[in-house]
Design brief:
Elements: H1 3-19, E1 32-37, E2 40-45, H2 48-70, E3 75-80, H3 120-131, E4 140-143, H4 150-164, E5 170-174, H5 175-187, H6 191-199, E6 203-207, H7 216-231, E7 235-240, H8 252-258, E8 262-265, H9 271-284, H10 291-300, H11 305-321, H12 328-335, H13 348-359, H14 363-367, H15 373-389, H16 394-400, H17 406-422, H18 424-444
Parallel strand pairs: 2-3, 4-7, 4-8, 5-6, 6-7
Antiparallel strand pairs: 1-2
Length: 445
Amino acid sequence: MGDVLADIWDKLLRYLQTNHSQIWRNWFEQIEPISLENGLLRIGVPEQSRQQYLKKICNESFQQAAQQITGHLITLEYILTDEQQLEHHQVDSSSSIDTDLYYFSPDYTFDNFVVGPCNRLAHAACFAVSEAPGQAYNPLFIYGSVGLGKTHLLQAACQSLLKQQRQTQVAYLTCETFVNHFIRAVEQGKLHDFRYKYRHAELLVIDDVQFLSERERSQEEFFHTFNTLYQTRKQIILCADSKPAEISGLEERLVSRFNQGLVARIDKPDFETRMAILLKKAQLRGINPPDEAIQLIAGKLDQNIRELEGALTKIHGLALLEGGTITVELVREALGDEPAIPRIRITISQIIDAVTQHFNVRLSDLQGKRRSRSIAFPRQVCMYLARDLTNHSLEEIGGHFGGRDHSTVLHAYRTIDKLCDNDQNIRATLDALVAGLTEKNYQRR
Ligand code: ADP
Ligand code: MG
C-alpha cells in the first residue's frame, strides 16, 4: 500500500470516527485500502456481512468523508477479499420484491451477544441449533417483546452455521417478506417457484411470525412449507412477540406445530446484563465510557435494548461535539427530563432538506400526488421525522405535504415506525437522518 494511500485512509478513518459515529464500528480499523485511482477508492473486506454493511449503510458517509479528506468526488468499491465467500449461499429470498432488503448484520453474531438470565435458554438453544441443525430442537421458537434480541439471535444462528458450513442453504426472512412473496407468487402464477425456493432450504428462519396473524391463506401455505421441511428434518427457527398460543388469529394446527419443539422466552434484561450489553456495544463502536456513565444509562433505561443502544449512540454523538469524552455530566444531561436536544429548533423545512437530499427527490414530488414507492417512502419518512422531532400537530405536518390530512400523517408515522422495528437498513437510515438533523441544530446553538 502506498504511503499516500495509507495516509488518506488513516485520515478518512479518523474523520468517520468523529463525524459519523453512528455507523462507525471498531473493525473499520481492519479494512484494507487497495487502491485509489481515477476517483475510485477500492477497499478490501473479508466478510460478506461487513461488505454489505459498508455498501448499504455506510456508503454515503464514506463518500462524504473521502471528499472531505481529498477534496475530490470519490466513488468507493467494497471488495470481498475472502474468495470462498463470493458464492452466495443464502437462498435468495428477494428475487421479485423487496430486493436486497435483508442481509445479515455484522453486529448480530454470537460473539456480540451478551448472555444473561433473561435470555440464557434462547441463546443456548440457538447456539445448539446452529451447531447441529435439524437435530437438537425443531422447531425452535423464540419469543419476547420488541428490542430484546430476537432478530440478533436468529441472525447469529444463521451466520454461525454459514461460517461452519458454507454450502448450507439458509433462508432467513421476515414473515412479512414471506407473506408478500406468497401473495406475489399467487398473483403471478408462480406458486411452483415459490414452493421450490422455501421448501428446499436446509435452515428456514422466519422473523416476527406474529405477522401471520389473521392471514389465512398465508398460514395455509406456511403450514405446508413447515411440514415439508419438518418431515425432511430440516431446521426451522421462528420468533415472535408472543408465545404461539397468544398470537391472535393463528390456526390451532400451527400453534401446535410451533409448540412441538422448544419454545424459549426472552425477558427484559436485569441491571447487570444491561451494563454488560452497554459495554459490549461501546467496545464494538470503539468508545470507552467511564463505568459510572454506563451505570447511569443502564439504571435509567430498562425496557428495551434498542433504546439502550440508542442512548449510547446519542451520548457518544454529543460527546464528540463537546471534545470527545463521555462524562457523567453529559450522560445526566442527555438522559435528563428536559431533552438535551432542543426539539423545537428542528424545522420541517430542515427535515425536508435532509430527506430530499438523502433520497434524491424533489420537494414538489413530496407535495404531489405520486404514490410510487420511490416518492411515497421519502414522503412518509418526512412525516415521521416531523412528528418525532418537531412540535407541529399532525394537521400542520400534513399541510406541508400537499395538504394531506392528519390520518395520512398518522398512517405514515405508524408505517415507518413498524419498518424501523423490522428492518435494520431502514432503522439505520433514519438514525443517520436524525443524527444529521440533531447535530446541525446542536451546533447552531
Ligand atoms: P428484537 O428482534 O427482539 O426486536 P433485536 O434483535 O433487533 O430485537 O435487538 C435490538 C438491539 O438490541 C440490537 O441492536 C441487538 O444487537 C441488541 N441486543 C439485544 N439483546 C442483546 C444482547 N443480549 N447482547 C447484545 N446486544 C443485544
Ligand atoms: Mg426483530
